[in-house]
Amino acid sequence: MPHKKPDYSNYGPRTRLVAAGKEFTEHGIVNPPVYHASTILYRDLETLRSGNQPYRYGRRGTPTTRALEQAVAMLEGGHDAKVCPSGMAAISTMMLAYLSAGDHILMADTVYLPARRFAQGMMRRLGIETTFIDPKIGAEDLTALIRPNTRMLYLESPGSQTFEISDVAALAEAAHERDCLVAIDNTWSGGHYFKALEQGCDISIQAGTKYLVGHSDAMIGFITTNKQAWPQLHDAYGEFGQCAGPDDLYLCLRGMRTLDVRLERHMKNALTVADWLMAQDIVDEVFYPALP
After folding, report:
1. Whole-Å CA distances, 134 to 46, 223, 251, 252, 276
2. Is 56 a catalytic residue?
3. Distance of alpha carbon 76 from alpha carbon 13, whole angstroms
4. What is the DSSP letter of 57?
5. Among 14-28, 77-91, 162-176, 259-273, whose mean pLDDT is lowest?
6. Catalytic residue among 5, 14, 56, 59
7. Which of 98, 112, 154, 237 is an active site residue?
8. Is 151 in the active site?
9. N or C, which terminus of the chain has less Cβ within 10 Å?
10. Is 4 a catalytic residue?
11. Which has the minimum average pLDDT: 39-48, 83-92, 117-126, 200-209?
């Protein structure tokens, strides 16, 4: 039988990180097991015909896959999530799931460089046009850039390298008024310090390689959506044949258990370094949002 999503509403954010995915364990085992699987057998012909078996083929998911996907969806506050073999795979899969030839996308000028190259290369070749915008643009100016064929607003806040902060909630509201989807690369927050979907985004992407895994030993990416955006992503994901290896799934799920304590130390260390750099005569400017 399919695993039911537990009710985490009475848990604090830190407790949720420790508890997420535990519904996929049995026999008192603390963490979900690692399933290495391609072929999955059916108990009998009736089960095959009914379509009620939750796992049908390894690429379509195993209990390990679903434990991690539901944990990330819980972390992001989304309806559900899909796991990809890297953060860039998550970005490209998401783009192609929602965009078609003739569409137009507004993209923050400070996005992750491979995402920018994908927009200028593959997406352009497929007939999808991109306009790069100031990440600090106001809602009114954003509205003026939205065309009849503008399908998506794509943000990253803070921006890669230069750390501009976007007014995500205001921009999302303006985009939705013109029937545009709003997606964001939420890797910098780990989905823990910034809840993008609560701020109006429809889709949140993470390169879990960074903070979720946390130990520089696995590549993985995630796409989390709200309920309305989910069906289109779900179908496209299957058509693209995306999946991630079971050992990387396990490493990421294990890494999530310590996400809160690691991010707190990252934050303190980064601020210490930023303050030190500010005091150096050879440094002209430091780009860091937490500085005064």
Report:
1. 57, 24, 36, 33, 29
2. no
3. 11
4. B
5. 14-28
6. 59
7. 112
8. no
9. C
10. no
11. 39-48
